[in-house]
Amino acid sequence: MADLNKIVEELSTLTVLEVAELVKSLETKWGVSAAAPVDAAGAGGGGAAPAAAAEEKTEFDVILTDAGANKIGVIKEVRGVVPGLGLAEAKKLVESAPQTLKEGCKKEEAEEIKKKMEAAGAKVTIK
Fold it and tell me: What pLDDT digit, counting tens, does each position of 43-73 carry?
C-alpha cells in the first residue's frame, strides 16, 4: 500500500498537460481509452458543457423543414420513410412542416433519408 501512496503523491505534482500526456501514453501502451471515465468525471464536476462537446452523438432526428414545390414527390418519400403512414397522414405531415420524420436513427440512416427527401424537393435538417 505504501507504493500506491507514493505513486499518488508523485502524480499529484504533475501539471494538467503532463497528466494529459501520461493518459495518452498509457492509452497507447495498454490499448485502452480513458474517454468514458473522463466524461463521467467532467459531468459530475460541473463541467457538463465540455463533456457534452467531447461526447459523440450516436442518435439523430430527421426533421422535414419545408416540403418544397413538389409536394406529391415528398409525400411519396415520407410514406417510404415513416412506416405505416397512410396517404392522408403523410399529406398532413408534409403540409404541417416543420415535422420530425424519424427520431433516434443512426447517422448513416439519417443521411440516407435526408438525401432521398432532398432529391424529392424537400428541405430536411438532421439534429
Answer: 555 545 555 555 567 788 888 888 888 888 8
Which pLDDT tens digit goes with each residue over 90-109? 888 888 878 888 888 888 88
Q: What is the three-class DSSP state of 27?
A: helix
Dist CA 105 CA 111 (whole Å): 10
CA-CA distance, 29 to 108, in Å (whole number)?
32
Strands (E), 1-127: 60-66, 99-105, 123-126
CA dist., res. 48 & res. 14, Å (int): 24
Q: 22-31 b/e with 16+ CB inside 10 Å = b?
A: eeeeeeeeee
43-50 own/partner pairs: CB under 8 Å, 24+ apart = none
